[in-house]
Design goal:
52% helix, two-stranded antiparallel ribbon, 11% strand, mainly alpha, 2 strands
Length: 54
C-alpha cells in the first residue's frame, strides 16, 4: 500500500510545472507540492475508512 507521503512525492516528481492555484503543501524536503484532486479524494477515502472503524 502506498502511503499518502509517497503519493505526494510521486506527484511532485511527475509535475514540476504545476499550477498551484494557491493550494500547496510543503514536503519534508522543503518543496512546494500542489494539492491535487487525487490527493483530496485519497484523504477523504482514508477518513471514511477510519470513521467506519470507530
Amino acid at each position: 500500500m502506498t502511503t499518502a507521503n509517497e503519493k505526494k512525492e510521486q506527484m511532485t516528481q511527475d509535475d514540476s510545472t504545476a499550477d498551484f492555484h494557491g493550494a500547496a503543501i510543503i514536503n519534508s524536503d522543503g518543496q512546494e507540492v500542489p494539492i491535487t484532486e487525487e490527493m483530496v479524494k485519497q484523504a477523504c477515502e482514508e477518513l471514511e475508512e477510519n470513521r467506519k472503524k470507530s
